[in-house]
Amino acid sequence: MDNGSIVHIDYDLFNAATEKLIETTREETAKEHDLFDENRTYSPMITVVGDGRLIPGFEAHLGDAKSGKDYEFEIEPVEAYGDRDQNKIETISQNVLLRSVRDPNTLAIGAPVEIGGRNGILQFMSAGRARIDYNHPLAGVTLKYNYKIVKVVEDREEKVQTLMKMNTGSEDFEIEFDGDDITLTLPEQMAYDQNWAYTKFSLVTTLRENVGVAKVVFREVHEPRQIEEE
User: Global pTM?
Assistant: First the structure.
């Protein structure tokens, strides 16, 4: 699969040593392994091949993958989330921990915590001390993936809509091409997105690299408010 290809991927992710399911995009797999979440919509993952969103081992495998073919392979920690680092396991004052969480009643061994902007797992808490593991939860784990590329996005307008949704979470953009130039009319709610001013600059690069556009125009339309009659 060429770098820059926009693809939809169905996958199951397992701990290779225990065969325990970690994540899946397939509803039937989640039900089979008693991990079904009724509040979640199960659908293929969308990614751009080679853009670095995925772990290195998966990115490398995608480079040789073909659409519609089932694959099963393992990824060693060095090409996934790295080996466990004992230097990332720290002991802190229990008072520091309690001041860092919104609701101390939610604290439990094995629960995620955020301390000073760093995410970790609470391993131990006693006698005024707490031990936090800042390693990634999958550090040191050999992963097994079962996956299939179920769709390659070919249509130019669909590519733009897909990239906009991936980067903004919205898919209500109006798209107009004029040769290689493109005008994107923004959904009204984007005007209230505090990150939009920064996001649009990276989007210009993304659209040029993956769709081959030239000039990019972002257009805002603010309709007048209608006053309802009593």
Answer: 0.83
Instruction: Calculate the alpha carbon distances from 146 to 22, 29, 72 in Å.
Output: 12, 11, 4
Query: Mind listing the domains of the chain with CATH numbers?
Result: 1-82+138-154 (3.10.50.40), 86-133 (no CATH), 155-230 (3.30.70.2210)
Residue type for 25, please? T
What count of residues does the chain have? 230
Cβ atoms within 10 Å, residue 99: 10
Q: What is the block-wise mean pLDDT of the chain (230 residues), using blocks of 10 residues?
A: 94 97 97 95 94 94 96 97 95 91 85 90 92 95 98 95 90 92 90 84 92 94 71
The CA R_g of the chain, rounded to the nearest whole Å, is: 22
State whether residue 180 is helix, strand or coil.
Answer: coil
Amino acid residing at 129? R
How do residues 13-47 score in pLDDT, each as one tens digit? 999 999 999 999 999 999 999 999 999 999 999 99
Residue 74, Cβ neighbours under 10 Å: how many? 14
Residue found under tokens 């603010």: 222
What per-residue confidence (pLDDT) applies to 198? 86
Q: Pairing mode, if any, of strands 70-75 and 143-152? A: antiparallel
Cβ-contact 112, 36 below 8 angstroms:
no
If you write DSSP's letter for every residue of 47-74 in order, what string do you get? EETTSS-S-HHHHHHHTT--TT-EEEEE
